[in-house]
Request: fold
Amino acid sequence: LACSYVVLALFVPTSPSQWGAILCIVLLAGLAAVQSLRGHQRIAAMIVTIVGWSAVAGAELGLDWTGAYINDASLFVLIIILATVMLGSRAGSIVMIFSTVTTLLDSALRPLPALTYDHDLMMRLEMTHWVERSLLFVATLLFVRMLMNRLMGAIHRSQQSEAALVMRNRQLEAEVIERQHIEAILQQQSEHLQLALKAGRMRTWNWDLRTNIIHGQNMGGTHPLPDGTYSAEELFRRIDPQDYDLVKAQIALSIASEQSCQLDYRVLQPDGSSRWLRVSGGRYTDDHGNVVGLSGVSQDITEQKLAQQKIRRSQERFSKAFHANPIPTAITTSDVSRTYINVNASWANLFGYAPHEFIGQSSLKVDTWVNPDDPERVRSTYEAQGSVRDMEIWRKARDGKKILVHMTIETIEIEDDNHWLVMLRDVTEHKLVSEQALELAMVRERVNVLRDFLSTMSHDLKTPLSVMNTSLDLLERVPDPSRRREKAEVIRTQVSLVNRYIQDTLTIARLDYSPDLTIENVKLPALVQAIHDRLLPRVEEKRQSFTIAIEPTLPELRGDVDELERAFLNLIENAINYTPSGGRIAVRAQPEGRMVHVEVQDTGIGIAPKDHALVFERFFRTSAGKQTHQNGTGLGLAIVKRIVEMHGGKIELESTPGEGSVFHLYLPMVSSADDETQPSLTPPHSLPLLDAHADG
Reply:
């Protein structure tokens, strides 16, 4: 259209205003082309319709905008078709109305031209035909472009629809697979539920409140209620009268509440007996939220109820026996706190408390322990053995009185938790009686020993007394001074022997009945050296060697210096007495752990193995010893053993007949704590008036 007007302006005289109109048409045509290329077909169609209609209408009304003479209704038809196709039927109708009005106005206002030949007019008519062809071509192009766009849009929409359908099919396939998976899971869960219901001997039920009909299905075992469908009235007729009101109230509560409920009640059987049921369930509603029914499961719990009744009766009997038990008994938790759960009256009376003062308190808070380490000792024994049997422990009452008890602990289960059942047996009086009986037995033993001792001593004293009497008689009758001195020496020897008997007897009696020790630090090298110096004349007389192998730095001993000196004096004197002339005697000492090991060795006659266990008995003398040394009392080694044991040590013998003996003594040394609190004393070089000889 624009090109037609430009060509028309070039061949036909055109005024400036007509050029302006043509320029506007050209610009608008270019704008329409740009919009069309951008895909805005409706905007391009609107521009073309408006421009084309305005040009045709102006020419039709004789406005002579462009200088073209247009008088053909077909142009309006093209514009109407273009508007209808490109912009819709409503736009085509509007354009048709305006075109009709314009044509009527033109017919009314424009006179018919004269039938004269006019060259300009013919040119204008020719150009008008070109304009019409241009409009038809433009309309055809726009129509084809529109059809192509709509076809491409339809293809695109079809492809999109196809892609959407493929996507939807995939989604549907995924949903189907997921649904099948869910259905399989639901089927499996349903099977599991069925198995669980069967294993639990449960029964499913559904109560339709609209019809008041109950449908039940027994899943396993026997059940007090029948399978199938029955009315709610039939159910209520079978409920035990004692539970009727409770069941009605619980049903009303379940209908009013969204929460599930559980109820135990009894159901009457045809034979007149009753069975216990445990019913669990809740309400369900329709689409409008109205409660239309109840559903759940039920289980026959008659055996469980009977078992609970038996347990309750057993607990009642246990409680009565617990509180009536004369043995002090308590129940505590098994954790570290050992909290008292219950105690009986015997327990409270034993310790002087009221029962409520124990309950709820820790066994450590109610202070009844004498030794604070005993609770841990009890716990360790329980964990190692699983129980405690007659463990002897000192406890104390409220007034501080000590009580010796035998404790027994067993495990009992209370409300699914393990607890301790603690029982005490007061053995204080029994212990006292036992000690008194033991003391009485010891007294009797001592009396027997004393009787034997007196019998032995009287027998042993007869010989020296007879010798002394005979010597005195001879002393009076013999005039020879040398014979008189000889008899006097015999009397002096026998008096010394009697003195030994008396001294040893007093010593062993004192150690038995009054074993009081004055404990202090004792330097063993100085003590042995003092004994060596005292006995050196006798050693030299028998031409024996006496060596001491004790380091001056040897740790000091803890003991009574006088008693230790007496023990070593007896051992060394024995070695001198039973070692022949020219023999050897040695004393060695060295520390071993917390003890000092002392050896007293000789090369004497030795002791037979059968006599090793007897040489430390009182008044025992070996046959070889009696032949070698006749003046022994048989108490020396018994005194040594008693003194060593009183100091917490021990004595051992190693001997071979004909080769000699070695006595091993183990005595406690001074610890660092003792060394800080006790002074170090050196034993005196003199001994008390005591000539205590010993015999091996």
Notes: DSSP finds 18 helices and 19 strands in the chain.
